[in-house]
Task: structure prediction
Amino acid sequence: MREASTPSLSPTTCGSLLQELQKIWDEIGESDSERDTMLLDLEQECLDIYRRKVENTRKYKADLYQALAEGEAEIAQLNSTLGERTSFARAKGTLREQLSSIKPVLDNLRSKKQQRVKEFSEIESKIIRICAEVAGNDQFINNAEPQVDEKDLTVQRLAERKSHLEELQNEKALRLQKVNAHISNIHELSVVMSVDFTTTVAEVHPSLLDHENGQLKSISNDTLAKLTSVVKSLKQEKQQRLQKIQDLGSALMELWSLLDIPTSEQKKFEHITCLISSCIDEVSRLGSLSMDAIEQAELEVEQLNIHKASRMRELVLKRQTELEEIYREVHMEVDTDAARKMLINLIDSGKVDLSEMLFRMDDQIRQAKEEAQSRKDILDRVEKWKHAAEEENWLDEYEKDDNRYCAGRGVHKSLKRAEKARTLVSKLPSLVESLIAKVKAWEIEKGMTFLYGKEPLLHELQEYTSQRQHREEEKRRTREQKKLQEQLATEKEAIYGSKPKKPLGQSTNNNTMVGTPARRIGTPSGRMGISGSKDRRDSTRVIPVNFVALAKDDPVYRGS
Result:
């Protein structure tokens, strides 16, 4: 029984020990039950030792499997993170052989990851640096700590960050160009106006001047905004100074002209007067718009104005003469004597500011010139109308002259003038109609009456039109009357025979009706040249105006 329950032991180790233990028990005198109990305990202890060993070995195997799985998972993760497409297949063999095959793959991928993280870190560091420069965060420019997203280290992501970095670098280059351009503009403006360039730029940002020691020029939004504001402010100041110098130059030239200042005195201010017609971009000479130049010109203008005050009376009257001349040229009648008398009284009273009066007169002259310009087109047409009307009157007188075709000196000139006059007179209706339309449009636009001399031009034109229509009507009646007389003469010749012609409109008894010569209707005997007193008295009836229109059975017609 004991032999059956005794486990198989190594003959060299467990068996010898068991034999030695039996001998000891024999010497001690242990009972069989005690010996069986001890052997059972010994067997249980051996089983526990084997069991623990098996458990530990099983756990080690599980750890190897886990390490192998973790290695494969890490390979998959690194491939995903790096964007690699390397395929890995587990090698055949023991677990340790499989782990050995994974290790070089892992080492290679881990090395790639470290290199990729380094590349990302460098790019992100540059991005952060440029962003800090743009934002104006100086503390981050040299202490940038990039944060790399190690979950995405693919080549595509790296290319995106490189592209973003390139965009930022281009933007930085553009900003630097803008900064340099602004600084250049500030320098040019400072030179022209004698402004302290160094102080002006340093107030924007110290790095814009102190960049020789390695400090980068600030390209932040704030710096660009300040530079833009400074350039805008300096340009406005330049424009204001140029305008001021141009005003002073114009004032100097006007005063020189009024006061007859010698040319030698004027040359002292050529640097002022040469800028009168210059535009802002053309002014670039050193100190040409400095405050010293402006103050010098202001002082000269002030001194000349003091001198001008003594000649103000003469200047005011000169302006009045100029104003009168403008009005006279455009046929605007003004009471010059009353205006001059009023001006002299105001000057002598000393109650008005003569400079202000001169200014107001300059304004009046300007308005008069504007009004004269607005009247010019109409006045040109009026001159044409006047000339045409004069030619029309001459032509009327010329055509009344019965001897106009008689040979004599100057006849061919008169004929030529008459031909031109007829062409010109034929255009008179359209010319007057156009002129009336122009005058009406001018009056509507200006809200006032267009005066020519002291009379409204429109009234004069309308009156001329009415008179011309009346003259044309008279001419038409005269032509009709003459035609009727010729018809009556023809009828009389047909009835009485040919007689010496008398001037039209002339009658033996001076009896007329409506401007038509009266003629006596003779008897048959009278038509034969035999007349009697009774027959002559019976035949003294007057022929009506429209004799030709009478019916054949009319008593007057039958009596003939």
